[in-house]
Amino acid sequence: MRERQSLDDGITSVKRLSQALADNTDLIEMGEEEGDADIVAEAETAIRSLSGEIKARQIETLLSGEADANDTYLEVHAGAGGTESQDWASMLLRMYTRWAERRRFKVEVLEVHDGEEAGIKSATVMIKGHNAYGWLKTESGVHRLVRISPYDSNARRHTSFASVWVYPVIDDSIDIDVSESDVRIDTYRASGSGGQHINTTDSAVRITHLATGIAVACQAERSQHKNKAKAWEMLRSRLYEEELKKREAAASATEAAKTEIGWGHQIRSYVLQPYQLVKDLRTGVESTSPSDVLDGDLDDFMEASLSQRIEGSAGQPVADID
After folding, report:
1. Where are the N5-methylglutamine modifications (predicted)?
2. Which of 21, 39, 51, 207 could pair covalently with 31 via S-S, beta carbons 3.0-4.6 A apart?
């Protein structure tokens, strides 16, 4: 039903926009025949006004992948550098949380490992909302921060790194077969806040897939059984995401030629000092207001990276109303 509604909305929208374009084109032709400049100008203005809605519909067509409509998991990991990178990781987590809140998505914290002095070593959250994975899937990679460190008494400029990993939540219609003999399951005490029970029992669970080395962990629940069930869901989602990447690489020579996202492969830089600039190194999209970006204003970056992915796989750009 969700797929049907999405298709119905898309078809209705295209028909309406096509009709509006045809009607105003006819008006222009009529105005030119009658020498009525006012009619021509009015119709041209109406056509230009359609560009905003057409752009929004174009962006929606970018979110048509197999799992794009699904909820998503998002992991943040601090890089080397101790407190600096851990503080940067917490800033990234807040940025994506604020972005999700702007879209009225629900954010569920599954695991957080706090830093020794400040920030976080790592965190995993689930973001629930229509097209959550589709919007966030191009955010995987290494994010770099340049700023005057608030933790440096000499006020020196520091560069910090943190990585983001995004993979879709899969539903019951997708079957990923993984047996317990294929994994290693570890239990441990949860860290951070959570009350006496969560900190004094081995309720947290980590599952490692032996063949791929993929590891997931969950400590959101007090019950080890519930954490284990959630970790199994996360593992299946990670394996499914790996399969999606393989399919993309096989279907597109451009994608196959890309370097695999890993540590040291930056996708975006956030400079707070000596100047203010956020720049996506893949698309060239920039913002001179890092405070807005860090407060969740990410749509321009996401739209550009999604468009680039579609252009690369299709071999042609998305149509431009101009």
Report:
1. 196
2. 39
